[in-house]
Amino acid sequence: MQIKLTECPRDAMQGFDEFIPTKLKAKYINAILKVGFDVVDFGSFVSHKAIPQLKDTVDVLNLLDLSEKKSKLLTIVANERGATEAAAFQSIDVLGFPFSVSEKFQLRNTNVTRLEALDSVKRILDITTSSNKQLRIYLSMGFGNPYGEEYSPEIVLDWASRLREIGIEELALSDTIGVASKSIISPLFKSLKKELPSTEISAHFHSAPHNWQEKVDEAFKSGCFSFDSAIKGFGGCPLAEDDLVGNLATENLMSFFDQNLSPSISKENFVYAMDIANEVFG
Hints:
Largest sheet: 9 strands, mixed
Order of helices and strands: EHHEHEHEHHEHEHEHEEHH
Strand content: 15-25%
CATH superfamily: Aldolase class I
Number of helices: 11
Helix content: 40-55%
Number of domains: 1
Radius of gyration: 17 Å
Strand order of the largest sheet: 8-1-2-3-4-5-6-7-9
CATH architecture: Alpha-Beta Barrel
Shape: globular
């Protein structure tokens, strides 16, 4: 089974304290595009005040070399305004929207309730459909949350089913604070695959260096064949309150799935992209 890989420089960069120069961002993403990932999550059309690091997304996009593009470009949006702006760019293929299983995190992240966010998703889906783009919904806090709210795989399935009913065909389960465990991963992916067989389900794990493999292995065994990651595990969620909880490191994922990678993946170009990552993040 061939694994779908989404590389996430946007996730890696968005919380970085020092502003990364626009040209250096473009240099890094251009290097990533040469690797041949299925999708590259490159930028964000959200409030510049909320995420100042990505205020130059349009400028970065204009500096990308897309002449031999093999990867789909994904950008994050948080509302219809951002979706409309992103959809105007022909080179952007996928819009990602964060929909939280946690009511508190939805309010904190996008300043709306889950029901209000569901209405936004309907309108954003109209925008992506009319502009011939895909819409990927990230189910934030998909494996648990720090707010003491009720959580279970059944709750995740309920919201996933509501999203499927309005026409969403791609969901990414996000381990926002790195709490996913084997006891949650297996029943969650198995129930989603069973109840929503026509929906593409991805895994966006945040993980500490010592437990990434058990998460990936359990998801794969449970029918997940699409994974998000970031070179060297940069990024992650500030809510994790643990400096070691970052994104799943792409080099680990590629090593784990070595025999299942797309033929388009260039390991030589990946080594070069890792070198540029050192230049970006220091």
